[in-house]
Amino acid sequence: MSSHYEAPIREPLILGEKSYHDISVDVGAPILGKANKSWWIVFSIALVAFLWGLGCIVYTVSTGIGVWGLNKTIGWAWDITNFVWWVGIGHAGTLISAVLLLFRQKWRMAINRSAEAMTIFAVVQAGLFPIIHMGRPWLAYWVLPIPNQFGSLWVNFNSPLLWDVFAISTYLSVSLVFWWTGLLPDFAMIRDRTKSPFQQKIYGILSFGWSGRAKDWQRFEEVSLVLAGLATPLVLSVHTIVSFDFATSVVPGWHSTIFPPYFVAGAIFSGFAMVQTLLLVMRKVVSLENYITIVHIEFMNKVILLTGGIVTVAYLTEYFIGWYSGVPYENYTYLSFGAATGPYWWAFWALIICNLIVPLTLWVKKWRRNILWTFIVALIINIGMWFERFDIIVICLSKDRLASTWSMFSPTFVDIGVFVGTIGFFFVLFLLYARTFPVIAQAEVKSILKSSGERYKRIRESGEDLAGTATDQRTSNYATRPQSLGVASNSDATHHQSTVNADALVDTEAKKAEIDMMLANIGTYDPATQTADDLKKISGVGPVLEQKLHQLGIYTYDQVSKMTKKEYDLLDELIDGFPGRAERDDWAGQAQNLKN
Amino acid sequence: MASGNVLHVLYNDDDVLMKAVKEIRSNKYRINEAYTPFPVHGLDKAMGLPHTRLAICSFIYGLIGLSVATLMMNFIMIEDWPRNIGGKPSFSYLQNMPAFVPIMFELTVFFAAHLMVITFYLRSKIWPFKKAENPDPRTTDDHFLLEVDTAGHDLDALSKFLYETGASEISLIHNEEHA
Q1: DSSP letter at A357?
Q2: pLDDT tens digit sequence for A415-454
Q3: What residues have CB less than 8 Å from A339, skipping those under 6 apart?
Q4: Is B126 within 8 Å of chain A by CB?
Q5: Buried b (16+ CB within 10 A) or exposed e, A464-499
Q6: Cβ atoms A231, B147 nearer than 8 A
Q7: CA-to-CA distance for A68 and A397, rounded, in angstroms?
Q8: Are A338 and A398 in contact (CB under 8 A)?
Q9: DSSP code of residue A155
Q10: CATH: 3.30.565.10, 3.30.70.260, 3.40.50.720, 1.25.40.620. Which one for B6-37+142-178?
Q11: Where are the beta strands (DSSP E) in A534-581?
Q12: A534 Cβ neighbours under 8 A, 6+ residues apart
């Protein structure tokens, strides 16, 4: 159909022979299955780091921020560095879901859910730092404009720090609502797929009773579009306002008019690097390589190249203008000859190498399509962008206008502990999310399957009509379920399939007839011409289950791959301890893969 | 809305569904409701649904947010307790306004976004602990369900016609209150 047309030159965004049902199965699998060992290991490490950080936070709050490495000259260091770093990371999610929605970029759909999750979790980490830095976090509500007992002591709306309060809380809450609204149809899918009553209850609550009416979808799409329109200037405003914290001051190196656009570009730069870091691992762990493809990775690398380029131009401008001004104070800013050769030379060069030089390798197509190299570059950018904020804050402060107060900063174990703790907290949240949330916006991906799916591109190019191609045997066989089993068993009561040896499992003739019907559908195994496959390779099948399948005459992947809901139901009836397994683990799909 | 009995007609392809909706409507049958697993583009138009006015609501909410920000900061910074902060003009909202632009913008977005989403939830009747109302669990997976009104139609002819439009399953639903 013409409405699904997409130029053949565009690479498919969904690989493999996927149907709509396959998308539900693949997205539901990590939630409905069990966590594997590597998940538990990573989760434990993250949890330990989080608890360590929590200890450091408690120590800071109970003792005072004197336990940090701050001194008279450098009164802002790791806390604000970490704050800006985390806020920056929190920029990619909304950029992907909002800006790319306005630009109608279909590739955003596979990654927006996780990127938004990352955004929210990163902003949570960012928000911790100003609150801890208050020293008395229980008085954090004083930043709100509420009437109070100190006469009319109001907050100061002229201050960029207060603008930050409004910008970050608006950003966090709007991102959360945007994310959750998009999650409703996907929670509903999980709710309707799961067999466990507990999960049905939980996902029923989370999905807000989403039913998918035509009117709901019309409103859903309108709301998404308007939210994207609102979130686009919002995401740009947030880091602009964060940069005002510095740009409105009179410290050399901070007082810079190019900070707002340069901070925004840097934020997207670091945000995409973090998305790459997380997704390259996640697509592997939860087997979503067919949805988060090399094409997605390349597109993200191109965004990294663009924003990295903007950041590079900003660095060069800062360096040049600092030198060209001839002002001696400018020689000690974070981008200056003084910084490059001074006591913080290592921080300066870390910034240059990580953010300016290494990302240049992505100009080479072969490298930006190389997964391992992309992962390494993403990690390097994460480090580089931390150094950028460290350099801006610590190097600029370390040499102030009076040479006698020049100083260096060295973090204490508490500084380090709080930072490591937020990384741990971030991963704790992300790992829990990856196990319990649909990590791909499956409803949206389904809506582009016919235009950008590999299978449908092939069908379209062969000149066939796409109408009717979405039918999936596994979900559409309810109606054709045989109603007349009695007749079948009467006509063929004594001659059951010879490969079936199911006397231990089956006691009635009617059941045996049902098995024959099943084998008629999925094909019989002929020991003379075929060899049995190793059914244990199908996840969920152990040696015992394999033996039982053999008793029922099922020996090959080919047979399993033809199984539908009907066959699964029969197996459920016949085999103890089996219920729901085959459908949940999608045996047919797995067998299809193993066959090839 | 549904008077009497309805047919639940399942389709398993969005293109077939779109064609079917057009045929059903051009044959003067009434579609009460459609349940789909993902937004099928053009379905609302094909079903004759009116436009949604949520965007207009959002615009109005944004204006409210802007007014709230202006009134709040005018009261706090200019009227109630003016202070000299860095020599900024604390006697006139208009002259001090450049410093207030960020908050005016943020509150505009805050009101426009949140109130619109709340309106959406209320209009579509979705909230925590709401029971889902899709009649078949497959409508969140890969099936599309049309609820067709049977009032005043011959059931056999109607089902035959619906099967011809490509329906994969049809079931008759008795509505208790009208049965």
Answers
A1: I
A2: 999 999 999 999 999 999 999 999 999 999 999 998 888 8
A3: A332, A333, A345, A348, A391, A395
A4: yes
A5: eebbebbbbbbbbeeeeeeeeeeebbeeeeeebbeb
A6: no
A7: 16
A8: no
A9: -
A10: 3.30.70.260
A11: none
A12: none
Beta bridge partners of B169: B10
Q: Residues A474, A477, A478, A484: is their CA dihedral positive or negative?
A: negative
Region of A566 please: left (phi>0), alpha (psi -120 to 50) or beta: alpha
* Helices (runs of H) and strands (runs of E) counted in chain B: 6, 4
C-alpha distances in angstroms, A285 versus A88, A189, A281?
26, 22, 6
Residue A155, φ and ψ in degrees, nearest 5: -70, 160
Q: Which of A234, A241, A275 is nearest to A261 (CA)?
A: A241
Residue A213 carries which side chain, given as an amino acid letter?
R
Rounded to the nearest 10°, the torsion over CA A524, A530, A535, A536 is 150
Q: Are A560 and A508 in contact (CB under 8 A)?
A: no
Six token digits for residue B4: 């009497």
Structural tokens at position B59:
């615009």
Q: Decide if pLDDT at B157 tops 90.
A: no
Which residue of chain A comes nearest to B79, CA vs CA?
A152
Query: Would the CB atoms of B35 and A469 count as touching at under 8 Å?
Result: no
pLDDT tens digits, A452-474: 888 888 888 888 888 878 887 77
Alpha-carbon distance A382 to nearest alpha carbon in chain B (angstroms): 28
DSSP assignment, residue B146?
A: E
Check: CB of residue B46 under 8 Å from CB of residue B25.
yes
Residue the block writes with tokens 């730069």? A269
Measure A52 CA to nearest chain B CA, in Å.
35
Backbone angles phi, psi at A543, to 5 degrees: -60, -40
Question: Which residues are within 8 A (CB) of B61 and not within 5 positions of it... i.e. 6 or more apart?
Answer: B111, B112, B115, B116
What secondary structure does DSSP assign to B43-98, as a single string?
HHHHTTPPPP-HHHHHHHHHHHHHHHHHHHHIIIIIII----STT---S-HHHHGG
Q: Show the tokens assigned to A221.
A: 């799409």
* A46-75 pLDDT tens trace: 999 999 999 999 999 999 989 999 998 898
**How many residues appear in chain B?**
179
- Domains for chain A: give ranges and CATH numbers: 2-440+447-457 (1.20.1630.10), 485-595 (no CATH)
At residue A463, φ and ψ (nearest 5 deg) are 85, 5
Helix axes A509-522, A565-574, angle to 10 degrees: 150
What tokens does A181 get? 């609204």
C-alpha to C-alpha distance for A374 and A361, rounded to whole angstroms:
10
Q: How distant is the Cα of B100 from the closest Cα of chain A, in angstroms?
A: 7
Strand partners, B34: B146
* Interface predicted TM-score (ipTM): 0.93
Contact A485, A513 (CB under 8 A): yes
User: Greatest CA separation found in chain B?
Assistant: 84
Task: Give A552's contacts (C-beta < 8 A, 6+ positions apart).
Answer: A500, A502, A505, A515, A518, A571, A574
Main-chain dihedrals φ then ψ at residue B144, nearest 5 degrees? -120, 125
pLDDT digits (tens, 9 = 90+) for A76-100: 899 999 999 999 999 888 888 888 8
Residue whose tokens read 């000859």: A337
Alpha-carbon distance of A215 to B39, in angstroms, equals 10
The answer for A98, left when phi > 0, alpha when psi is -120 to 50, beta otherwise, is alpha
Within the 78-117 window of chain B, which residues sit less than 8 Å (CB to CB) from chain A?
A: 80-81, 83, 85-86, 88, 96, 99-100, 102-103, 105-107, 109-110, 112-114, 116-117
Q: Which of A19, A196, A219, A249 to mutate to test the interface with B (most CBs of B within 10 A)?
A: A219
**Partner-chain contact B13 A208, CB within 8 Å:** no
Which residue's structure tokens are 């899709």?
A: B134
Question: Closest partner residue to A170 among B109, B116, B140, by Cβ?
Answer: B109
